[in-house]
Amino acid sequence: MTLAAARRTALAAQGLAAARPSAAPTRRTVLKVLDSTRLLQLDSVSAVVRAHYAPVFSRIGSYDRALLDDAAWTHTARRPRRLVEYWAHEAALLPVQDWSLMRWRMVDYRRGRWSGFRQVFDRNPTLADDILGVIKEFGPSTAGEVEKHLELDRPRTKENWGWNHSDTKVVCEALFSAGELTVPKRVGFQRYYDLSERVIPAEVLNREVDEADAVRELVRRAAAAHGVGTETDLRDYYRLNRKQTEPAIAELLDSGELEQISVQGWDKPAYLHSSARTPRRVTGRALLCPFDPLIFFRARTERLFDFHYRIEIYTPEHKRVHGYYVFPFLLDGKLVARVDLRAERGTGRLLVPGAFAEPGCDTARVAAELASALREMAEWLELDTIETGERGDLTPALTLALS
Length: 403
Prior knowledge:
By secondary structure, this protein is of the alpha+beta class. Helix content is about 40%, strand content about 20%. The chain has 16 helices and 15 strands. Helix 12 (about 230-235) packs across helix 13 (about 240-255). The longest helix has 18 residues, at about 365-380. The chain has helices at about 5-15, 25-35, 55-60, 65-75, 105-110, 115-125, 125-140, 145-150, 165-175, 200-205, 210-225, 230-235, 240-255, 300-305, 365-380, 395-400; strands spanning about 40, 85-90, 90-95, 155, 165, 180-185, 190-195, 230, 260, 270-275, 285, 325-330, 335-345, 350-355, 385-390. A hairpin with a 2-residue loop joins strand 6 (about 180-185) and strand 7. About 40% of the residues are buried.
């Protein structure tokens, strides 16, 4: 397979090669994005918009974010919850039915995801039971509310992580990682914890899936979401390890669901999913947030698009190359530019501190298309104006196009 064909295959698998819906998006339209991506990564940074909202916008255009909130954090008899939070590719929203595929990981995380969790458990041997008791009695609660019920004023710890969490929050997170708690709702992006048995449907909660079977199913999902990818690509999507993925890939090859191929310029074998399609041409544009599933594995992004991309949130400002929160710009199947963005809601402005073109692109056309994409984003976010800064070689042309 040529590299260009691999790109088109990947874009089709991710739902980025299809025409956007002409009618106003519905809950069903929003959830259909998950048929392609399988998950939406969660992240606390809100420089523009929360990370899980952006990939849906990239694929279907302007939509009501309440539709996604409703699917993830609202449950009624007539409109059951369709998405649930768990550690998939980092913290993510995934289909409720996929929760049981993570039971093996929950077993691994019984004492938390990091060694620092164990220290908190050791100095608070009864805290986990106390937290479960409070939530059982009072229902969905934040870690702060749990502390108030327990009348705790515990010191915060900075052991082994950069967050300043209380012991109660750490244990709540450990119980979430172990599958004993889950997140039925968020308010202001703050997690409310509840017993999993009160949130996850019984048929999913009680489904026992052997680790090998679960991993094979996750690799199958990752392969469909990639269209074509290497073992490392498939491994990264759900944060698996090689000892898990290699046997799963071998079984999927035997069953005919995967085909081993070579991709021009790749130094590792690639695996083509049986449902993958390769459009003859990909058109259209999309702004991709840093956590979009198409690009969140940076090595694959570079291999597919010859696009070196790193998030610079944690880089000191004077060392940043492109900016704090940079969106790559996809145009007609190629990553042709990147733009640093900030939504200033108080003043109704979409700020563009910097815009940078990729070598060899048609700067005038890229600027015109990017200007249209930014106008669409501003309208979606209910921002009145777009203001450009001074950084980047694309900024003069973009400023002209916006004017």
